[in-house]
DNA sequence: TTGACATGAAACCATATGGTGTCATATAAT
DNA sequence: ATTATATGACACCATATGGTTTCATGTCAA
């Protein structure tokens, strides 16, 4: 099988406030859809769609139990975000690097 | 209805791969739009729109110098992302918390 | 002053996104 | 067996998003 095209990545998944709230909620443990829906002011279908997107990004696992689908958090994909952020660490960790960046950008001043 | 500001937040800003590439580029220092555009296969206008979105999120500063607009990186808003991510630290930092979450979600098993 | 250059602004377009409502189906409860 | 529940699958809709092209304007160079 060829690797899944991964329609939604973790950056997109996390971009929506509803989905971020979903992740926090699931941080407390596995929950069925109906239970989750109670925490939002939108329809069950809408919540389900958000969970689908989170699932495609690997942030959530689904598991059928009886007639309900239980969702649980998987934080592993957040490591990609963490890694991406770490690229910018040099801009906070010490003022010298910030100064260097400033000086480098200031070599062609014309006014 | 009242016209909402509809501003862009840092999560949305960072969701687009082009914009993430822009941030890396600007990590090397301030650059004028024309220079930036050369690194992408889209039109100058499109790049400009992306920079506008980054600017609204506070991730980029614009500065007019003669007839060009120079863009520079401001990583400060990324701290919000970092802070949000830190909420999930407990899921990686020790296996015990993961185990706890698992056990808590497993109290109503019916299989 | 004339013309090239860098950018902004606006109109437009196709597709993605975030929502809704309705209906079908599997499972649980009576 | 019948009914209530939980969910998924669709069809549909309005707006956002990411891109284009065209035109206007301010600035630099001859």
UniProtKB/TrEMBL annotation, chains A, B:
<dbReference type="GO" id="GO:0003700">
    <property type="term" value="F:DNA-binding transcription factor activity"/>
</dbReference>
<dbReference type="InterPro" id="IPR011991">
    <property type="entry name" value="ArsR-like_HTH"/>
</dbReference>
<dbReference type="Pfam" id="PF01022">
    <property type="entry name" value="HTH_5"/>
</dbReference>
<dbReference type="InterPro" id="IPR051081">
    <property type="entry name" value="HTH_MetalResp_TranReg"/>
</dbReference>
<keyword id="KW-0805">Transcription regulation</keyword>
<keyword id="KW-0804">Transcription</keyword>
<dbReference type="InterPro" id="IPR036390">
    <property type="entry name" value="WH_DNA-bd_sf"/>
</dbReference>
<dbReference type="GO" id="GO:0003677">
    <property type="term" value="F:DNA binding"/>
</dbReference>
<keyword id="KW-0238">DNA-binding</keyword>
<dbReference type="InterPro" id="IPR036388">
    <property type="entry name" value="WH-like_DNA-bd_sf"/>
</dbReference>
<dbReference type="InterPro" id="IPR001845">
    <property type="entry name" value="HTH_ArsR_DNA-bd_dom"/>
</dbReference>
<protein>
    <submittedName>
        <fullName>Metalloregulator ArsR/SmtB family transcription factor</fullName>
    </submittedName>
</protein>
<feature type="domain" description="HTH arsR-type">
    <location>
        <begin position="1"/>
        <end position="93"/>
    </location>
</feature>
């Amino acid at each position: 099988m060829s690797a899944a095209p991964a329609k939604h990545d973790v950056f997109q998944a996390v971009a929506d406030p509803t989905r971020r709230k979903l992740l926090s909620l699931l941080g407390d443990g596995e929950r069925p859809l109906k239970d989750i829906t109670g925490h939002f002011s939108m329809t069950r279908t809408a919540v389900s769609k958000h969970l689908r997107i989170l699932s495609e990004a690997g942030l959530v696992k689904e598991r059928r139990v009886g007639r309900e689908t239980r969702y649980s958090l998987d934080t592993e994909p957040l490591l990609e975000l963490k890694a991406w952020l770490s690229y910018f660490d040099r801009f906070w960790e010490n003022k010298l690097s910030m100064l260097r960046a400033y000086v480098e950008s200031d070599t062609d001043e014309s006014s």
